[in-house]
What we know:
By secondary structure, this protein is α/β, with parallel strands linked by helices. The protein has helices spanning 50-57, 86-89, 113-123, 132-142, 159-172, 189-206, 217-223, 241-246, 251-259; strands spanning 6-17, 24-35, 39-43, 65-70, 79-80, 96-99, 177-181, 209-213, 226-231, 234-240, 309-312, 315-317. Adenosine-5'-diphosphate is lined by residues 17, 24, 26, 44, 46-52, 281.
Amino acid sequence: MKPNDNLVDIRALSKYFGGGKHPVRAVDDVSFSIRRGETLGLVGESGSGKSTIGRLLTRLVDPTAGQMFYDDQGSGAALDLATLSQAQYRPLRSRIQIIFQDPYASLNPRMRIRQVLAEALDTHGLAKGAARLPRIHALLEQVGLRPEHAERFPHEFSGGQRQRIGIARALAVEPRFIVADEPLSALDVSIQAQVVNLLGELKDQLGLTILFISHDLDVVEYLCDRVVVLYLGRVMEIAPTDALYAQPRHPYTQALLAAAPIPDPTQRRTIALLQGDLPSPANPPSGCVFRTRCPHAIAECASTEAVLREVQPDHWNACWRTDIHYSK
Length: 328
Ligand code: ADP
Ligand code: MG
């Protein structure tokens, strides 16, 4: 078998909610990979399916169709996370962790931080007996907190510190892959940068791979190696971060970047809802799903399926029209 540069290979992944004739197509035939050691950004308007992809990878929800190959040995012998039972997935929970937007909601208010971290260690039988407390103290220091914080309760921390605790809890089980679902959204802008820097440092120190879900275009530009752009459960564009921001190829990506406020040191560029109604994911447009809001759409876009094509090395675009020259 040949070595595998991809930690994760998502192939034709779909998640439909509800049955009947018009299920909600939260994720619809999505394919992309996450390379070993990279931070991959996942962006798109609210409702585009970002969180659902994170929840599929961590099997908090089960896929409707498709594959999610995972290979943290680099041997080429990937496991398909999509087909594992919950019992088969359990050992992977120590290798794949998810960090959420609101760390407070997931911390038991009656547990000291020492107990929160001990619980995480216990789930996977790690750092038992005399090794326990030193490991907990080391975890706190790793995320920029102090050993004495172990004895405190969640309400005694600021929002930024709680997100650090959430990160420490994720790291407790020594994961290889972290899904971070809008981990900064609940934090004050002034402390977001500290948490972003912490994630970047931990990634380098621990050799982590991160799927970074965000609607903050500035943070994604700063932190991510590559970016996947989602719209209505489908991938519109995939590119290295520099290329995507310098020369977005898909009209949707262009609209997102154009709609973001002009750079202003006191403001952040975040994804705003674009003009025009967002179609329902239960009843998506035919052909290219973005055509109803696309300034370049022509009649054929209703009948021509949008397929990702490599338009430059490593830069993939799902707009089938090659006859229009995009400009920013
Ligand atoms: P994002 O994270 O990009 O905002 P989500 O993945 O949360 O998007 O949601 C994608 C779509 O799936 C939305 O239309 C949302 O309403 C729908 N959805 C998400 N979870 C559920 C669920 N459990 N049941 C029904 N619909 C859902
Ligand atoms: Mg979300």
